Amino acid sequence: MDSALHHGAAAPASAITLLPRPRAKTGLLGWLTTVDHKKIGILYAISAVFFLLVGGLEALLIRLQLMVPNGTVLNAETYNQMFTMHGTTMVFLAVMPLSAAFFNYLTPLMIGARDVAFPRMNAFSFWTFFAGAVLLNLSWLPMLAPEGYTGIGQAPAVGWFGYANHTSTTYTPGLGTDFWIVGLQLLGVASVVASLNFIVTIINLRAPGMTMMRLPVFVWMTLVTSFLVILAFPAITIALVELMFDRSFGTNFFEVAKGGQPILWQHLFWVFGHPEVYILILPAMGIVSEILPTFSRKPLFGYPIIVFSGACIGFLGFAVWSHHMFTTGMGKVANTAFALATMTIAVPTGVKIFNWIGTLWKGKIQTRVPMVYALGFIWMFMMGGFTGIMHSAAPADAQQQDSYFVVAHFHYVLIGGSIFSLLAGLYYWLPKMSGRIASEGPGKLGFWTVFIGFNVAFFPMHFLGLNGMPRRIYTYDGNLDWNLWNFVSTCGALVLGLGIFGVVCHIVYSIFKGAPAGGDPWHGRTLEWSLPSPPPEHNFDTIPVVRARDVHWHDKHTSEPAPEHPTAQHEREHGVHMPDQSWYPALASFGLFILGSGMVFKPKFVAIFGHWSIVPILGACIVVMASWLWALESPGGYHVHPNGGGAGHGRGGKHH
Length: 656
Description:
Order of helices and strands: HEHHHHHHHHHHHHEHHEHHEHHHE
Helix content: 55-70%
Strand content: under 5%
């Protein structure tokens, strides 16, 4: 029986039409004003992939500088800029937004909703992320470099962790650190707004029968990650505000000469920074937990345990931050407590791995491209986990701290973990997003290129670290016995870069030239596979009624029609109300961009526009926000209606 009929859809999809709208629905204006969660997910994906390539290019320049002793590819200042922007870009502009792309596109589809709870806030979160990303990368502009400065532009050169007191005006008097501070604050606003939206969406907009213990694991990880964001980001926000006050208003939070405490920055940063590791890895775990059952042709082994272990990882992630600070002199009691907590967090992580292996055990495994990336994730993440356990012992960490051994560890976790899983997700859901499927041959060639390049690039760093090579050095002498492994590591990085670029090209080619995929090419388990590819703007003709955990498998293999949602008859007669497009999110984000630029360029800004120039800018932002709120009370939106029958139009829409 047709899966659409199982979800109570009385009219076929071809009978559902979109009525004319008061503003452009397609083209550039359509993308600038969209509030559709699927389009916003695509915008996140495009931005994240672009910055993944940018961050990768920065990494290759770093490795080329270290390829041979006494390298001259980069000078010291430019190397520090590349080092800082590579870390910042990969964490905040590549991995996090690529996870957000999946959150946006898939969460409403997986829970049987037509959109997120607050569509315009969803658009606002993307445009604010985009504003922060642009502001950070404006710092590269050469015309911003002061006279005598040997770096490029005014990019930050303090490391992605921004340790005090390197960030003080004494040591970094230029604009680079200000770009970093304000850019991260805008990115934090975007992340918190989006996370609140996902929490409300998952809790309130689930389809009938979609109990919490029937949620796909990916949705569970979205929920846990969202809570981590709203609990972790206030710590880094406080630290950034204090740093901004030190630099702009003469306060003394971190200035040692004036009584400040640099270690306060480390505590605030790592209270955010270690949960941030799980903000990056939990979505990857959710993606793998969806792919493995599909290509093993059996339900996920130990579903409740995987859900519970994910929540435990999120909780314990706030109890281990000071294992980054074992060498700062906290004392034996603190070191022991954080060492034990770090060892404890390995338990729920190991539980997940055993459950994934249990899912594979005796399954009818299909080694399609998403599956091989998922299997690569498990192996690479285990490698990173093993070295992480080594760091949990304070005496061992004292030897490995700030060495290339640590660089190898977190790259195995974040590239071998997050990136492998995100690429698995791109290949897995590409047919749903584009309606086309990627070919197997080039996909597997890309996997092996990335896999081999990654291991050749980062495994030798373990040897370099154990042989004493410290992090954050831009050159080294030829008699230190680091030459061979640095050369091998750089060769591997070049292969990895070639592989990532090839994978991106293959995905882009598949979007336009791939074979038609159909609605369910993988024989999927979850609700999104019951829809056409790509899904219509309103997602579901009628909201589905969920009767099992693997709902789509259940519906395809039962002859009993699903009960109809109570609103189905009303929607067939009167149409489905959908939120209209809006300029307010982009305008509000542009206002924040202008305010952020004013904070960075404050001396020039004041010299040109005067001390009171901030007043009209703030006034304009307030007007935009007030207009946004006023529009909430006006009728609006538009209707998807069977056979094109009657609808209402408007410019706002209380359903936003």
